Amino acid sequence: MATIRKRGKTYQIRVSTGYDALYRQVVRTKTWKPKPGMSDKQIEAELNKQAVMFEELCTRGIVPSNMKFQELAEEWFENYAKNALRSTTYERMLQLTHRVYPAIGHLRIDKITARHLQGFVNSLAKEGANEKTGKPLAPKTIRHNLSFISDVFSYAVRMELISDNPCSKVVIPKGEVKEKQIYSQEEMELLLTRIMDEPVKYKAFFFLIAYSGFRRSEMLSLEWKDIDFQTGVIHIQRTSNYTKTNGIYTDTTKTESSVRFVKVPMEVIDVLLLYKEEQDEERIKLGSKWHDTDRLFVKYDGQPMNPQTPYGWLKEFCEKNDFPFYGIHQFRHLHTSLLIGAGIDPTTVSSILGHSQVSTTLNLYSHMLRENQIKACDAVANALSFTAKDNPETKNPHHANDTESYKKIG
């Protein structure tokens, strides 16, 4: 049973949890301090409640730990993250420690509260948080930091070092949401036209990514045997990634749903065939120096291409041609917008993109789907417009603003 001792303005709750190997009594303690303004009756009631809760935790083996957060995080990296996370995710988590450790790494895990973490998260949303630009961190980056901390605390809960995860009560500040810049259909057509005169390797890469919507890691993992040149169907079944620790390595797809078959136009297949002819000639020239990986996109000697190579090439190409540069992933966004604009249903779009759930597609591209809903509404209105023409009494001066009203609601 718990015993309570008053020590000045605080109370010490003591619970015996048995004896150790040397037959010494093991006592766990917790200090509780009343909030200002509490009456004696309130203090007594809350103190008894705290004593019961603490005794229950001790009985279950969940006792306060004097372990510091950094110490726990390093244990989490070693015992869990190294084996459970994808290498790219693991390395990103390591990079986050340079902000998290100085903020809370020195604190005991049983003393870290939601208030501590909310203060840390809020600091990331202030001017100067981004060391390179001097601006606040992007909401996505802030979420990554909180996710890392939460994963470590979840591990502590599973190991019964603490009873709950304080991150569950933390809120990400609303930052400025920047509209994603993607190529318009006209810009993409112009870009692909100009790439026609570039080396066939890069012509093949950017034609394929534009017409397929593949992720960059999926593009770089493609092997010639994945392509059915007769039907234009391509099999996505792996990814190619890079980390400082592993270098360029092959991994599984992002999710199980990312393993899929996607059909591309035969015009793209023709470009790939031209590229294959050139690569075959290079292989013959290099002879034994050629690394036969069967990969489409490779270095000069057949080894897998670094993920940064197409990014750097496109950036240089855009600068040389006075063309806007939005990065590689925007090809995937444009591909998606064209699918949605063509009226393809979300389930099919999700399948083409390799999303694990349709809800992922709906969340990422909700604005595009709303635009389609507006078009659908207008289409029905146009199709049935004879009713308004034939019956003047049905006309409403507010009808002209229906579409704008819908946009505001959406």
Keywords:
disordered C terminus; 3-stranded antiparallel beta sheet; mainly alpha; 16 helices; 410 residues; 10% strand; single chain
Main pleated sheet: 3 strands, antiparallel
How is the quaternary structure best described?
Answer: single chain
Question: What order do the helices and strands follow?
Answer: EEEHHHHHHHHEEEEEHHHHHHHH
Supply the helix-strand structural class: mainly alpha
Binned strand content: 5-15%
Which term fits the overall shape?
A: elongated
Strand tally is 8
**What would the average pLDDT be, to the nearest integer?**
86
Determine the fraction of residues in helical runs and give it as a percent range. 40-55%
Biggest β-sheet: strands ordered side by side in the sheet: 1-2-3
Radius of gyration: 30 Å
Q: In whole angstroms, how far apart are the ends?
A: 59 Å
Low-confidence stretches: 405-410
Q: Enumerate how many helices there are, as a single number.
A: 16
Quick overview:
The protein has 410 residues and is mainly α. The protein is built from 16 helices and 8 strands. Helix content is 51%, strand content 10%.
Written account of the structure:
- With 410 residues, the chain is mostly helical.
- It has helices at residues 40-59, 69-84, 87-104, 114-124, 139-158, 185-195, 200-212, 216-221, 266-286, 308-320, 329-341, 346-353, 358-364, 366-383, 386-390, 402-409, and strands spanning 3-7, 10-19, 25-32, 227-228, 233-236, 239-243, 247-251, 260-263.
- A three-stranded antiparallel β-sheet has the order 1-2-3, covered by helices on one side.
- Strand 1 (3-7) and strand 2 form a beta hairpin.
